[in-house]
Predict the structure.
Amino acid sequence: MLCVDPRVRSFRPQPFTVDLVAGRLLFTSEELSEARRLRGSRTGEAEYTPDFATVQADGLQRAYEVKLQGFEGDARYWAKVERAREIMEAYCYPLFTVVVPRNERHPVLVNAQLLKPAAMRAREYLTSDIISRVERYCEPGPVLQRALCADLQIPTGLIPPLLATGVLQADLAHHHICATLQLSAAYGDLSHLCLIEELRP
């Protein structure tokens, strides 16, 4: 999801540790070792590490706590997260929570897996002729994927690149990329690729 989100410039897993005792962020292993030495190597309730951090296209930063549905953690854990959230916000790292559906066939998960390689290789597959034909076809309004592919004689494998580049748009948070997906012209709009908010509790 972070790979295809147009707002994300870059991201890192486990980017830093929050020292809940000293109230600061630790970015290097040396800083972490020193903090642990000062508090007698106590970890657990004294530390928190977010799952991901991003640098957004506008230069702002975000951090994410990711949980699997059904394994969200207990009240004690979330009290620690809230303490970490306060510290991180003081450092301009707002923390967002994401709950990944247990159902591996959830549209957000399946579509993100299709869109990531499509975004990376779209230029290999899409020509200006294909793009203009698709845009003209969609001018009257929304169409089903099966109709677009049949009428324009284009393979279904081109739909993910067309979505990833903003030629087409669809409700990718709630519907799979398949024959019955309703598509419309996006004219460069990439907001349909902002999927991570759909998993916030």
In short: The chain has a mean pLDDT of 94. The CA atoms of residues 142 and 184 lie 5 Å apart.
